[in-house]
Write a structure and sequence with these properties.
The complex is a heterodimer of chains A (112) and B (541). With 112 residues, chain A is mainly α. Chain A has one domain. Helix content of chain A is 85%, strand content 0%. Chain A is globular. Chain A starts with a helix and ends with a helix. By secondary structure, chain B is of the alpha+beta class. Chain B folds into 3 domains: 184 residues; 158 residues, no CATH class; 152 residues, no CATH class. Chain B contains 20 helices and 7 strands. Chain B has a 7-stranded antiparallel sheet, covered by helices on one side. Classes of the chains: A mainly alpha (112), B alpha+beta (541). At the A-B interface, helix 1 and helix 3 of A face helix 7 and helix 14 of B.
Chain lengths: 112, 541
């Protein structure tokens, strides 16, 4: 995998994972949607969140190998979290949609 | 008085953090800029304009070594140290360095690669470039004393990290929490979020920063076992020939160019430097260093060396050959080298550098918010820690906050301006640039001391914004090179520096806007309350 593409892709996988984990928390769930998450949804969000973070680690290992992959994973996790946390209070809905829009923006180059 | 663990840790975090935060901010900010030392040097030396430098041939390199040797033999025939830097991507000239004896200062000159004539100052933009930030980062340009100061501050950083985690009441519940526009609350949220979210980076960078200088910080073992000779210790550890003492017998130096060719053949790489120890002495040895290849084995953390070959200069016998991308010294040294690599981001190319850069900037912001939070808290309600002197101490802390945070940023931005504005033909130009950098920093301290806090913050941030946003224009005005031209020729290093400057300039503008919006208008009838309110508003309300 091209490291620049991996950088972009893994960033958004981490971002989506963190978004899912935050949606499982009452405070942030009410920020983005309304009210509290139902217990089943909460569990699903947690599972999805941790799975995405694990997926991100695996993608990092594909792009950089196991020596550098984990370093990249930590770095991308931190940068995605910084982006998410400091965007959330200003534009909560956009912060959520970014998890969908971001990866889509990576598609056009494939059709050029 | 009996205290809980959290209370005593809180005390430690507050005061231990405060007294070191100014030094730490300087270490983190300059270190973060130092991640991109090469692109910064590239910009400062106007290398974008030179364009692609064609790869050199063996004959060109041999010729460069000959010319370098001729110059060195003329200026310092008997020397402790000679070094010939061959023309390469980063510099098309021959660079020679020498030192007459161990106590003499290093001297250097640049030679024309074709004629060997010494290039006079003014022929090129002589500068330390991005290395200035790297040297600020680990020693403040203060040599051994600086290394110890940075070491002490780094220990304080680790203490602050651990105590900070203990003090933080709800790391997981508040993991994604940032509540802007709530004054002190927002500063604490920001400080916490920046710290917690970059915690892996913070621990790794602080700890590996200390282990780089382990031999300096913990010298007892080496001192006891190797008669205080670090060189002897490292030679033994890395299975190299022991350092050769001076024999004080004159000896004729051989032609270095054939040795360079032998070295290149032995390590299988182009030479980048040819170094002679004890030139003109019977104990002289020649070391040929390979050129670093950033793309070779880029997926490895450790042992990405350029290779070197060592020869006896008199008998021409091969003393040692170290191939590129090999490590010696057993698992302990390999572990330490791995930590060095982690610290220096010597792997993964630009993607990794950017991740380090962003995390480093977040860490700097974490330190800045911590220092500001200390005062935001006390502006609201004085804690009276210093009795009658409290107000004066607070004022001192406030002044240091402005100078250490906004002032340093200003000095860093000004360094780029100094590079373009200082005439090319001044003597010791590189050193002059750094002196002016410190002069700007000192001026920012004086300014902070003379102005009310809010005004000082605002004016220095405005100056930062101006310098950053104006940088591309300055480059256009002084060198005729500009952003669009750099982008058009695919010169990402030049364009990257200027685009980053614009980005930072916009961030400072946003901060200024925030300051203005939060600060209530000063009213004439109650200037005092309005002033405190305005100062308080730095923290937002």
């Amino acid at each position: 995998m091209d490291p620049h593409f991996a950088l972009y892709l893994v960033f958004f996988v981490c971002y989506a994972g963190l978004l899912a984990l935050s949606l499982a928390m009452d405070r942030h769930h009410s920020q983005i949607r309304h009210g509290k998450p139902a217990p089943l949804l909460r569990r699903a969000l947690r599972l999805a969140g941790w799975s995405l973070l694990a997926l991100a680690l695996w993608l990092c290992s594909l792009a950089w190998g196991w020596a550098i992959g984990p370093v990249a994973w930590f770095g991308l996790l931190s940068t995605a979290a910084l982006g998410f946390v400091f965007l959330l209070p200003y534009a909560p809905r956009f912060a959520a949609w970014l998890a969908v829009v971001g990866p889509l923006l990576a598609l056009p180059p494939f059709f050029l | 008085m009996k205290q809980t663990l959290r209370q005593s840790m809180s005390w430690l975090h507050t005061w231990g953090g405060l007294w070191f935060t100014w030094i730490l901010f300087a270490i983190f900010l300059t270190g973060t800029l130092g991640v991109f030392d090469d692109p910064i040097s590239h910009w400062m030396r106007e290398q974008g304009k030179i364009g692609e430098i064609a790869p050199s041939t063996v004959d060109q390199r041999s010729r460069a070594v000959e010319l370098g040797q001729r110059h060195l033999a003329a200026v310092s025939p008997r020397a402790d140290f000679w070094s010939i830097g061959l023309p390469g991507d980063e510099n098309p000239n021959i660079r020679v360095f020498w030192r007459a004896d161990e106590d003499a200062p290093f001297k250097q000159a640049q030679l024309d690669p074709l004629t060997g004539a010494e290039l006079q100052p003014g022929a090129s933009r002589e500068t330390e470039g991005g290395h200035h930030f790297v040297h600020m980062h680990f020693e403040f340009h203060a040599g051994m004393a600086g290394i110890w100061i940075v070491g002490a501050a780094t220990m304080a950083m680790l203490v602050a990290l651990v105590s900070g985690i203990i003090v933080h009441k709800k790391i997981f519940a508040d993991f994604f929490t940032f509540r802007p526009g709530k004054g002190q609350r927002s500063w604490l949220d920001g400080h916490n979020a920046l710290g917690v979210l970059t915690l892996p980076f913070l621990f790794v960078i602080s700890y590996t920063g200390l282990t780089i200088f382990w031999a300096t910080y913990m010298p007892a073992g080496v001192l006891a076992r190797y008669d205080g000779s670090e060189d002897a210790f490292f030679a033994r550890l890395s299975e190299e020939p022991a350092p050769r003492p001076l024999q004080h017998i004159d000896a004729l130096m051989p032609e270095l160019a054939p040795l360079m060719r032998r070295g290149e053949a032995a390590i299988g790489r182009e030479a980048s430097f040819v170094v002679v120890e004890h030139a003109g002495d019977r104990s002289a040895a020649v070391r040929v260093f390979g050129r670093f290849d950033p793309d070779a084995e880029n997926d490895r953390l450790v042992g990405r060396g350029s290779g070197s070959a060592l020869y006896d200069a008199i008998t021409l016998e091969t003393l040692d050959v170290q191939l590129p991308n090999t490590v010696r010294g057993g698992s302990v040294l390999q572990t330490q080298r791995t930590m060095n690599a982690l610290h220096f981001v010597r792997f993964g190319g630009y993607p990794m550098k950017w991740l380090y850069f962003i995390c480093g900037m977040a860490a700097s912001a974490m330190l800045a918010t911590g220092a500001i939070l200390f005062m935001v808290k006390r502006r609201k309600k004085s804690a009276n820690e210093f009795g009658a002197a409290t107000a004066r101490v607070y004022r001192g802390i406030e002044v240091l906050n402005v100078a250490a945070i906004a002032g340093l940023i200003l000095a860093c931005a000004a360094y780029f301006w100094i590079n373009r504005l200082l005439p090319l033909d001044v003597a010791e130009r590189g050193t002059r640039e750094i002196l002016l950098f410190f002069a700007v920093w000192l001026a920012s301290l004086a300014h902070a001391a003379l102005r009310p806090s809010l005004a000082a913050w605002r004016e220095q941030l405005a100056a930062c914004a101006l310098l950053c946003l104006g940088l591309p224009l300055l480059n256009l005005a002084t060198t005729g090179d500009w952003l669009v031209a750099a982008l058009a020729r695919g010169d990402g290093e030049t364009a990257g520096v200027e685009l980053s400057a614009i980005g930072f300039g916009l961030i400072f503008l946003a901060m200024l806007r925030q300051l203005r919006r939060r600060a209530p208008t000063l009213t004439v009838d109650r200037p005092e309350t309005a002033k405190t309110a305005a100062i308080d508003a730095i923290g937002g309300r």
